[in-house]
Amino acid sequence: MTDGDEAVAVRRVWSELGLPGIIDVHTHFMPKSVLDKVWRYFDAAGPMLGRPWPINYRLEQSHRVDTLRAFGVRRFTSLVYPHKPDMAAWLNQWAAQFARDTPDCLPTATFYPEPGATDYVRGAIDAGARIFKAHIQVGDYDPTDPLLADVWGVIEDCGIPVVIHCGSGPQPGRFTGPEPVRRLLRRHPRLVLVVAHMGMPEYDEFMDICLESEAVHLDTTMAFTAFVNELMPFPSGEDPRLRAAADRILFGSDFPNIPYGYREALDAITTLPGIDDAWLRGVLYDNAARLFAVELPSR
């Protein structure tokens, strides 16, 4: 499929639902040196995961932005995340400039359990951050680390969503899984979390957490796809919890790091059993538009 054919196929999905486009809450733009390291990790993921993980959109940054726009993605993110101290503040500066240069990107920021984290998180919020990224697996930290107590408090008070990779896929970490998140929410019950990848592979537990807390959302990133279902399958059959959480499930793709085409991510969602067009409109656009106060006509 050529680039033009792919864009036509993607646009057909949302246009047939009567939407003005897609809001993708899980895309990655980051400094080239950092993204190159991420890509090298996935290039080597075959021995770790038992199968290759090709980067489907290994493109220059401007081409990646243009690709999302050609698909009709109206808002997207630049999810950055540190794996060590003294990295998050620099990533936040880069992401803030990227958002200034790219108005359809939701200004994104991140943090790490380290002295000074509360100060640079406040600075990112003052600079206009509208979404944070926390990667428990890559960062290898406990989300209830005392160094993050004030960070979570500041973010909770501001009501800014945090996309949090806390499930144990594609590989478990020391602090991944539902229990650290439950502890975090007991301390910060109003915290707006967006659990990445539907919490894979602990789908059941994280869907329960979502339904227990009105502030918790889920993103669909890579879930339901054939690629993931071979490794960490979503429970088969119709799940009424997907309908129960209909207004708190958001579309995410993991672009550009996905090992398949963007249309495949959409097809995996549109063919789920037991869902209807209203559910799809919410997931692909309306839920995120409401959460992030995106001022575009919803129809």
Give the helices and strands, then pairings.
Elements: H1 3-15, E1 22-23, H2 32-43, H3 45-49, H4 61-71, E2 73-77, H5 88-101, E3 105-106, E4 108-110, H6 117-126, E5 131-135, H7 136-139, H8 149-158, E6 162-165, H9 178-187, E7 193-195, H10 203-212, E8 216-219, H11 226-229, H12 240-244, E9 249-250, H13 262-270, H14 277-291
Parallel strand pairs: 1-2, 2-3, 4-5, 5-6, 6-7, 7-8, 8-9
Describe what this molecule looks like in 3D.
One of its GO terms (molecular function) is hydrolase activity. The protein has 14 helices and nine strands. The chain is α/β, with parallel strands linked by helices. It has a single domain, classed as TIM Barrel, CATH 3.20.20. The strands form two sheets. The chain has a six-stranded parallel beta sheet with strand order 4-5-6-7-8-9. A three-stranded parallel beta sheet has the order 1-2-3. Helix 6 links the parallel strand 4 and strand 5. Helix 1 runs parallel beside helix 13. The longest helix has 15 residues. The chain is globular and about 50 Å long. The two termini are 29 Å apart.
Total strands: 9
At the fourth level of CATH, the homologous superfamily is Metal-dependent hydrolases
What is the number of helical segments per DSSP (H or I, 4+ residues)? 14
Number of domains: 1
Percent in helix: 40-55%
The arrangement of helices and strands along the chain is HEHHHEHEEHEHHEHEHEHHEHH
CATH architecture term = Alpha-Beta Barrel
Structural class: alpha/beta
Shape: globular
End-to-end C-alpha gap: 29 Å
Radius of gyration, taken over Cα atoms and rounded to an integer in Å: 18 Å
Mean pLDDT across every amino acid position: 95
The CATH class: Alpha Beta
Low-confidence stretches: none
Largest sheet: 6 strands, parallel
CATH topology group: TIM Barrel
**Largest beta sheet: what is the strand line-up?**
4-5-6-7-8-9
Which percent band covers the strand fraction? Answer: 5-15%
